[in-house]
Structure formats: structure tokens, C-alpha cells
Specification:
single chain, alpha/beta, Rossmann fold, about 40% helix, binds (2R)-2,3-diphosphoglyceric acid
Amino acid sequence: MTYKLVLLRHGQSAWNNTNQFTGWVDVPLTEQGEQEARKGGQLLKDKGVLPDIVFTSLLRRAINTANISLDVADRLWIPVKRDWRLNERHYGALQGKNKTEIREEYGDEKFMLWRRSYATPPPEIDPDDKYSQAHDPQYAGVPVPRCEALSNVVKRVTPYWESDIVPELKTGKTVMIAAHGNSLRAIVKMLDGLSEEEIAKVNIPTAIPLLYELDENFKPIKPRGEYLDPEAAAAGAAAVAAQGQK
Ligand code: DG2
């Protein structure tokens, strides 16, 4: 028995476009982002990768990307489960800040540590900051972080993977997870058993479905899975890696 899992990062968001750290701030997709989501849906349809259930974060850029792509693939009717555990990594006090300005102010090393290290979180956000979610009624009862390293995301995603996602895979459903650059990196690290050094080099492009076939132990049959458009994915990942450079 093998299982099918599709990972989909949202299309370009307003703050991806303006080069701002986003995290839990609920920004919309741009028109380009919507277009990317449509292309992602067309890839699902063309390659016959048809999700039976979709998991999303609570953030509109992931929710809308899921809806747009599933609409194009004629799968808008499938069940949906949303959970804060799939939210983007909380970018702490960097939320709302311009990536290039932060790199110039703090230097390459710190910038890359905050973006891609496994265990070093960015600085904490003040709960009263306009970009904090500490007082957001949407997150009542949720342990809203003040900042997160990727290791914190792995800690919140892994139990959700076990409790909610694996049982759906076990029934033979094709599962799609529509989420974010870093919450998906947490899942990739977990699935592929990547080291901290290896995951630091992984960048997830916007809205290109990444298909994993998993064996009976939920381990990838092909390590790192397969993008449905590998060329576009390589270009998209390189663009993400280069963010913050002039
Ligand atoms: C981006 C990722 O998250 O940024 O929070 O700024 O996937 O929701 O657009 P997403 C953010 P980087 O870690 O790639 O800088």
C-alpha cells in the first residue's frame, strides 16, 4: 500500500510581492498569486493528481490558493480541514519588516540565521504590536507564539500530522496540504528525515504542487518528492532563496 500526499505553498501574497516578512499576518494573494494558484490547479488536473481532502492553515493566502486550485481541478467539493498548526512560522518582531532592509541592518549572517536556521528564532514580537496576533479573537484558546524557529513549527505540526493527516492517508485518500514556505519545510524535514543543514537549503516555490508517494511507514518512495512542474519549481525556489538580496 502506498499513500499520496500533495504539498502546495500558496501563490504570491501581497507581502511576498513587497518583500516583507509575513508569518501569521493574514495578507491576501496578489493577482499574480491567484494566477499561480490557477496554474497549480491546472497541473493537478493535467497530471491526474486529484485530492480527496484538503488541509489548510487559518490564513487566507493558503485558504484561497486551495480553493482556486481545487476549483480549476474540479475538486472544490472535497472536504476541508483548517488548523492553526499549519500556519506559517511566526516571524516574531520581523513581521511586517522589509527583508532587504533587515539584511542590510543586521548583516547576511543574522538574516540567514533568522530565515533558515533550524533552532534560532527571530526576535520576539511585543504582544501589543500591530502585527501581533496575541489579542486576535480568531486565535482565542491557541498558544499564539511571540516568534518561532523552524524547530517550533516541527513540534506543532508533527502531532497534527499524526492525529489528523495520517488517518486520512490511511484510508487511501489523496491528501493535499495547502500551507506556507516554512510550515511546509517543517513537513518536508519530517518526511525526508533531513538534517538541520539540509533543510536550511530547501526553499518552497509558490503554488507548484509537490507530490509525495509514501510507503507503508509514511516514508517518501522518492526522496524529496516530485514537483508537478520541476523546471518552474527550480526557478521559483531560487527566487525564494534570493529574497532580501538587492
Ligand atoms: C514567508 C516565508 O511565508 O518567508 O512568512 O515571510 O510562505 O507564508 O509567504 P509565506 C514569510 P521566508 O522564510 O522565505 O523569508
